[in-house]
């Protein structure tokens, strides 16, 4: 009997290869059968250790040799036992041999897992390389360190009157520190809801979370931080995490290893080592209320109910019925502080231009509550050379018109607009009067005006797919070709009438 077990062990140790795991399982099962016979006969058969103890050790090890596991490389297993004298193996050696092999596989698994995590991190870092850039109105990119995000705790969020505690802001690096949560308990928040108005920095927060982890923060808690704009989910066919990871993150230049990376990321998520940053719950809420959206709704819930989640949303479009019950912390992005405004100006403008904007803000009380919204402050900075010196006399409408016209000038240059057969340069565009800019960009103004109207009609739609854009162009093309207003809603005429007046050649038609 002992010889048979020894021969089985030697056969296993000398025949390792792609079938290693089934062979190990066969050996363990064989050893167990022989031990059971020994027990039933009441004889230890020369086994010096207690047979029951040996059997227990083998039973404890048996799950390790599940044939469903991938076979370990031959060299790793052989190395674990190469210093053993296989020809002198006895039944007592089996558990010890298995322990040694088990430890070798565990060590290999640990190294392989670490390597796989690093592969996933490298692939995601390459994927996010461009997406993490903050694009300014001017077209330049902004360093993430220049982008300030201020988070304040929302107190009594379930009540009608939400109170934001501005006296206790949470620095980004302390977001996952232990604190008092909504249920009154002290713990580390696992699900965080962040609300904020348009333009105050919710998406910037998402990018900063990814960047912070890539540069060393929270490495002890998360293998990966995933930023997922929820409005993109409906465009994917995926309805499992692994499918989504493959489709979104690992198809770009990763044909061979993409599936393996997606699988490893899904395993990491299952272990609670992934932080999901779900951006824009309000932008997907309407899609989950459609009659045919049950699959989408269930998938969104799957994402929201992951072990570690940060959710962003505008307050106005938030559907609380979608929120998981595990929300431990509710925050609000509150825009720039007065110091943030000063720091931002000093980083993106020359000293002279920064002083011009600072003076304009100080002299114009109307906009002092506007500049804490980062995107609006950036537009004001971009328009610094056009700001009026008589700040107190400007209206909000006048200020917006000034900023929009400055943006149209940028687009005119980018679109290589021409006049009298010559492509306009920056110098030419800077010399144009307001009416000339309106004439130059009339077609684009009509298109954007119509899209804005369509967005208002469609429950404040923000994203337009290719079909929606083509539909818009067809509507406007019919109107310009026929001059028949029945192709457009009456309210739409008011939207496109003013910017198009400068180019109107005769009643009912617009030149392009």
From TrEMBL:
It comes from the Eukaryota. Signal peptide: none annotated. Residues 190-317 form the NACHT domain. InterPro entries: DUF7068, NACHT_NTPase, P-loop_NTPase. It holds the Pfam family DUF7068. PROSITE patterns: NACHT. PANTHER family: NACHT DOMAIN-CONTAINING PROTEIN, NUCLEOTIDE-BINDING OLIGOMERIZATION DOMAIN-CONTAINING PROTEIN 2-LIKE. This is NACHT domain-containing protein. It comes from Mortierella alpina (Oleaginous fungus).
């Amino acid at each position: 009997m002992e010889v048979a077990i020894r021969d089985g062990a030697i056969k296993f140790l000398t025949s390792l290869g792609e079938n290693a795991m089934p062979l190990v399982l066969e050996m363990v099962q064989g050893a167990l059968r022989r031990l059971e016979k020994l027990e039933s006969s009441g004889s230890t058969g020369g086994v010096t250790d207690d047979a029951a103890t040996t059997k227990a050790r083998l039973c404890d090890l048996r799950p390790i040799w599940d044939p469903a596991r991938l076979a370990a490389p031959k060299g790793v297993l052989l190395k674990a036992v190469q210093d053993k004298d296989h020809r002198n193996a006895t039944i007592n050696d089996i558990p010890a041999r298995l322990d040694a092999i088990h430890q070798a596989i565990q060590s290999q698994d640990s190294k392989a897992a670490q390597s796989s995590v690093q592969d996933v991190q490298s692939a995601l870092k390459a994927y996010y390389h461009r997406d993490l850039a903050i694009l300014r109105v001017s077209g330049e990119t902004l360093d993430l360190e220049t982008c300030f995000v201020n988070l304040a705790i929302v107190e009594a969020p379930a009540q009608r009157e939400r109170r934001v505690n501005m006296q206790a802001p949470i620095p980004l690096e302390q977001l996952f520190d232990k604190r008092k949560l909504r249920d009154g308990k002290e713990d580390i928040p696992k699900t965080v809801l962040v609300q904020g108005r348009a333009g105050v920095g919710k998406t910037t927060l998402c990018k900063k979370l990814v960047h912070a982890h890539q540069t060393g923060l929270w490495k002890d808690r998360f293998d990966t931080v995933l930023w997922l704009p929820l409005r993109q989910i409906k465009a994917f066919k995926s309805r499992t995490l692994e499918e989504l990871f493959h489709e979104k993150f690992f198809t770009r230049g990763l044909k061979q290893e993409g599936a393996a990376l997606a699988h490893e990321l899904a395993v990491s998520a299952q272990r609670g080592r992934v932080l999901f940053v779900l951006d824009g719950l309000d932008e997907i809420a309407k899609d989950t209320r459609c009659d045919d959206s049950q699959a989408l709704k269930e998938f969104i819930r799957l994402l929201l109910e992951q072990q570690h989640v940060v959710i962003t949303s505008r307050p106005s479009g938030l559907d609380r019925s979608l929120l998981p019950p595990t929300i431990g912390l509710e925050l609000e992005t509150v825009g720039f502080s007065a110091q943030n405004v000063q720091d931002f100006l000093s980083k993106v403008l020359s000293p002279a231009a920064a002083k011009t904007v600072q003076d304009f803000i100080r002299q114009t009380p109307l906009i002092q509550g506007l500049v804490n919204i980062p995107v609006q402050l950036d537009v004001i900075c971009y328009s610094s050379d056009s700001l009026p010196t008589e700040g107190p006399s400007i209206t909000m409408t006048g200020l917006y018109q000034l900023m929009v016209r400055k943006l149209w000038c940028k687009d005119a240059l980018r679109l290589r607009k021409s006049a009298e057969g010559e492509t306009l340069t920056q110098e030419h565009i800077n010399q144009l009067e307001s009416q000339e800019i309106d004439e130059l960009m009339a077609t684009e103004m009509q298109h954007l005006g119509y899209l804005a109207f369509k967005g208002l009609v469609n429950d404040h739609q923000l994203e337009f797919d290719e079909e929606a854009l083509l539909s818009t162009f067809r509507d406007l093309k019919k109107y310009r070709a026929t001059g028949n207003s029945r192709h457009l809603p009456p309210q739409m005429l008011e939207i496109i009438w003013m910017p198009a007046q400068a180019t109107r050649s005769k009643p009912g038609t617009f030149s392009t």
